[in-house]
Design goal:
- Keywords: ATP-binding, Nucleotide-binding.
- One of its GO terms (molecular function) is ATP binding.
- One of its GO terms (biological process) is cellular response to heat.
- It contains twelve helices and five strands.
- The C terminus is likely disordered.
């Protein structure tokens, strides 16, 4: 087995052991109820309401007895049973490693991918070509037919404001990673010439402005559980387009009737 697989099983087993050694939540609830009963009993005694104090004393004794029975059951029963690490524990650990929610891992992948267009159209009205192109790229990636050195897909959604370019990016991030916040946005207006575009890969001058401008692209490259969205790409010039296209192969999907469709290979 690969080392990562062994580490995954080891961490899942360690979590299972810690959980078995930790008192169950209902025991903590008993402790809270007992503490509340004692506080109310002391308050009743201070107020010289002895009848109420007697009732609270009996209630406290009953709670203490119930807690003792539950603790005995937990220690004699649950700890004697051999614990098994199943696929749910493995999925939970893997979800923490990758940032992908557990339900995204355990759900039947084929079924999810086949209805990807329907899921995206719950938030996107129209734009059939763009949704279909994105869905095909993701399915191709999950089938293992993409270049492993490149991202799952790189698209340019061209069109005027309000047609759903950014919303489709958010919907895609939610579908893949379960959260709209998994979308990293890069303002391409900051990379309008060749010098500023070099910030995408590390500028020659290590200034605070450089580090601030390059933070989003670096997050985009380093993250395995996020999608990236570049806005205001029309601000790019011919010279600044070359370094920007080094990220990956780019396909332009038109999202407006008059938008041009362009296919570009890396420069």
């Amino acid at each position: 087995m690969p080392d990562k697989a062994i580490d995954l099983i080891d961490e899942a087993g360690a979590r299972m052991r810690i959980r078995r050694m930790t008192a169950p939540p209902d025991l903590r609830e008993f402790d809270e109820k007992i503490a509340d009963a004692r506080r109310e009993k002391e308050s009743a005694i201070d107020a010289q309401d002895f009848e109420k104090a007697a009732r609270l004393r009996d209630s406290e004794k009953q709670l203490v007895a119930q807690r003792a029975d539950r603790e005995k059951q937990w220690r004699s029963g649950d700890l004697d049973v051999v614990a098994e690490v199943d696929d749910e524990q493995i999925a939970e650990v893997l979800g923490n490693w990758t940032g992908i929610p557990v339900f995204k891992l355990t759900e039947e992948e084929t079924t999810r991918l086949l209805r990807m267009e329907d899921e995206l159209h719950k938030r996107i009205i129209g734009q059939e070509d763009a949704v279909k192109a994105v869905s095909k790229a993701i399915r191709r990636t999950r089938a293992g037919l993409k270049d492993p050195r490149r991202p799952s897909g790189s698209f340019i959604f061209a069109g005027p404001s309000g047609v759903g370019k950014t919303e489709l990016s958010k919907a895609l991030a939610n579908f893949l990673f379960g959260d709209d916040d998994a979308l990293i946005q890069i303002d391409m207006g900051e990379f309008h010439d060749r010098f500023t575009a070099s910030r995408l890969f590390g500028a020659p001058r290590d200034t605070s402005a450089t580090r601030r401008a390059a933070s989003s692209p670096r997050r985009c490259v380093a993250s395995r559980s996020a999608s990236c969205c570049s806005t205001r790409s029309r601000r790019l010039t011919r010279r600044s387009t070359t370094p920007c296209c080094r990220f990956s192969r780019t396909v332009v999907s038109p999202m407006a009737r008059d938008a041009r469709s362009i296919s570009r290979t890396p420069c």
